Amino acid sequence: MEITFKINGKTITHNVKSSLLLIDLIRDIMKLKGTKPGCLEGECGACSVIIDGKAINSCMYLAINAHGKEIITIEGLRNKDNTLDDVQEKMLEHGAVQCGFCTSGMVMTTKAYSDKCKSEGLVPDREQVKKSLEGNLCRCTGYIKIIDAVVAVNKN
Amino acid sequence: MKKELKVIGKSARKLDGKERVSGKSIYGHDIQLPNMLYGSILRTKHPHAEIISIDTSKAVSLDGVECIITADDIDVNNISYKRDHPILKKKANCERDEIAAVAARTKEIANKAIDLIEVEYKVLDGIYDPVEALKEGAPRINEFGKGEKQFGNKNIADSFHYEHGDIEHQKSISKVVIKKRYELPRVTHACMATSNITAEFNEMDGRLTLWSSTQVPFLYQRDIAHALKMEPSNIRVIQPIIGGGFGSKLDMHPFEPICALLAKKSRKPVQILFSREEEFILSPTRQPMIIDLTTGADENGKFTFREVEIIKDNGAYTSWGATTPFVMMQTYSSLYQIPACKFDSKAVYTNNPFAGSFRGYGNPQATFSLENNIDLMAEALGMEKAEIRLLNVNYKGEVTGQGLHYRTCGAKSALDTVIDKSKYHKLNNKTNKGRYKRGIGLASMLHVGGGAKIYRSDGCGTTLKLDDYGYLTIVTGSNEIGQGSETVLAMIAMEELGISSEKIRVINTDTDVKPWDVGVHASRTSFVAGNSLLGAIGLLKEKLKSKASELLDVDTDDWVYENGMMRFNENEINIDKVVREIHFGSPHQLCTVNYFYEPPSRFQNKEFKGDVSGNYAFASQAIEVEVDTVTGKVNVLNAHVSQDVGRVLNPIGLQGQMEGGLATGIGYALTEEMIYEDGVLKNPNFHGYKLLTSTDMPDVHFYPIETFDEAGPYGSKGAGEAPLIPTAAAIANAVSDAIGVRIYSLPVTAEKVLRALSEKNKEKEVIVN
Predict the structure, then answer these.
(1) I need a labelling partner for B18 at 20 to 30 A (CA). Which of B64, B292, B455, B511 fits?
(2) Is residue A32, in this structure, part of any structural domain at all?
(3) In the listed set A33, A58, A76, which residue is the last one of a domain according to the structure?
(4) Are residues A92 and A34 in the same domain?
């Protein structure tokens, strides 16, 4: 099946099997390795990417459903002057990265969440931030510095 | 010791953080080589069975399959700690057992080929309970085990005995004696990156290259060489960025030599990546145990003796998990003052999967049993639980029954701090009315802080290169597994040489390049690698000093290294200029040095006595919980953690390690459990095996204690495991404080809480009636 979609600002057309998962399209076909395979059961969030503004688990999403949509992966998160996006900067500043395998997913989930909060004029409290990260597992950090970073992102 | 430092003690960003946060870091899963094939492994359908025949003909003829191997196709040695583990099996002894392996052009073809392999099994009854395995009539479980000769029972894989002091005398002066049985479950590391390996064999020069997430590259190199009957130096181990270790990657596992064998046979690179389900089934667990602990105290509450017997479910093959007694002995013999101690531990073969090494390494289990018993002794004596611990707390200068020498000791400070900061006295032993009951629990821990001499060398090598432009390359034997060791090494270089972090590189990923190090374990890396780096920097400074003196015509040893300059009074010179002058002028040398640091710890003697580590870390936790007596759910409200770290090197890094360890400890206490039925794992996935999420973390309060121990870099001690060791104990003590009944096994699930409450109520009814 032929699908056309936008990824990290570029419009692409691919011919894919209908059973192909989005994560496999991103990693194996497009060779964008920044999105990570954590569980392939939609539980850990390491594979999170943003589709039309919403963070989704790419391991639970069929590639064919990306047709006509706009996808952002971790590789697409960069300011025009090549500096790190504010979410990435805050993660580093708050010590929220240890092994880093969950980090792409954490960053994309946070990017989608903070963009949504901004558009609604909402400054989330700590409990709301915790809830927003519920779908992303981490085994290294105990979440606290990730939560600190996300709170800081949303304060701006 | 210098107290005021410029860089050390101030939070620093992760050295390669920018790559990790941009998706640029290359993990094992991301490696792609030209012509690479994908490997898949056929595992047994039955935990215990004879393999009558294996028919690979249909799989071989599948288009895209390039090679298949079974036990008959390979000439290899057994692997694992006791060499009792065949790589490919002719008999299935546990659920994990590998029977055949396939390399194919795509993952899908490899998996399809696995399904086409036909195996005829003769299913046998399995033994899944170590107590059953010890019985006279039980069948022998591992044909390579040496149990009868060495330990008196064919199904004993390993056995340890330790004692110190006059236990009979101490028993006779004990006012209270508490004997309890504790049961500790299997839990798993659940690293976010599943197990992975890529192998390439060059048949022209006989060299094997492995891209492996091992935590112990040089021991791994030696083990793979032995397994494959190769020379170790013909094996190159390259470590990609590792997505979590926590001890899971101390053992070498069958899938690794299997991948090498597929690469050798197919003459192409082969990659094996585990699915999450495979990861749960195959990754080594924390050592499950049944601990029978008897402890005593005199009428004043002074501890008198400890007698402990442990049965460990060794599983079908023996891994490093069997050596957890080394660590447990330390806790039973040396945590709090204790005049007499007797320790016996047996690892028993069963048809369950084997355990491995997991952060804490037996210490969480030992501490759980000990700290529960201490609470019970306090209750029996009518003593305050904080008071009894303070009465027996370890002290500076103590030499324990095992011979551990506490040259510095923050145990009392840590305990005092958490008692005070958590308002323990106010919250403990309060009468709780209503549905939600609150309680607070205490627990302390002891662990090695300066490495642990369990191998012939506990050392680490460093090669330093300072180039003509003032850029420093640190080639270290030690590994970064996410814990921030590279960042600490860079901080040390910045402190000592005044070079900025942008001009510092750490290389530690290739056994062809880096010097030897025993590996990442025992919370040793900052201590050993740090001291190794300091030694190398010392040699470097010798070269720089003499040239700088000559160039500036001063005679001094007192150089200040700052902002890329070397300075003495008003004389100053750029450090890179000095390097160039040494290179292009006399003595025509490069600023490259080598240094190997062997920690001063001593091997323990045959009785396991000896000062096994360079220094020792102490910590205490006070944890407040709230129990919902209707659902049984335990909610952790506040965790107060105080840890003797010697000196804080990187505050934000240390806190991150502490918070992560605490989260794992809370999971061990409350939510994580691998559920097996007849040797088969029933919950090999994240929706069945519950990790903590962001909404589950309590408020965490951390109070590091600095005791400035001479042995460690700037006075520091190892810190990585301490945060999770006393956690389950503190939570269990808190639950008991809240609801008035004690639970003697982990995890403390809602079901156990409700059952305990209903039994308590039944007792009350009986009394009332």
Answers:
(1) B511
(2) yes
(3) A76
(4) no
Classify B269 in phi/psi space as left (phi over 0), alpha (psi -120 to 50) or beta: beta
Indicate whether A81 belongs to any domain.
no
Q: Which residues from chain A sit within 8 angstroms of residue B657, using beta carbons?
A: 98
Q: What angle do CA B696, B700, B704 make, to 5 degrees?
A: 145
Nearest CA distance, B81 vs chain A (angstrom): 27
Same domain, A56 and A109: no
State how far the Cα of B323 lies from the Cα of B304, in Å rounded to an integer.
27
Q: Is B264 helix (H, G, I), strand (E, B) or coil?
A: helix
- What are B34-83's pLDDT values in tens digits? 999 999 999 999 999 999 999 999 999 999 999 999 999 999 999 999 99
Both A15 and A45 in one domain: the answer is yes
User: Which residues contact residue A127 at a Cβ distance below 8 angstroms, ignoring those fewer than 6 apart?
Assistant: none
pLDDT of residue B431: 80
Q: Which residues of B touch A38 (CB under 8 A)?
A: 192-194, 276
Domain range enclosing A106: 86-153
**CATH number of the domain encompassing residue A108:** 1.10.150.120
**Beta bridge partner(s), residue B296:** B177, B305
Inform me whether the pLDDT recorded for B769 exceeds 50: no
For the entire predicted model, the pTM comes to 0.96
The number of domains in chain A is 2
Q: How many CB pairs under 8 A join A and B?
A: 170
Residues A62 and A33 in one domain: yes
A141: chain B residues, CB-CB within 8 Å: 656, 659-660, 663
B324-334 and B363-381 helices, crossing angle to 10°:
30
Mean pLDDT of B731-757: 97
Q: Tell if the CB–CB gap between B481 and A99 is shorter than 8 Å.
A: yes
Nearest chain B residue to A127 by CA: give it. B695
- Asked which of A76, A105, A139 is the last residue of a domain, the reply is A76
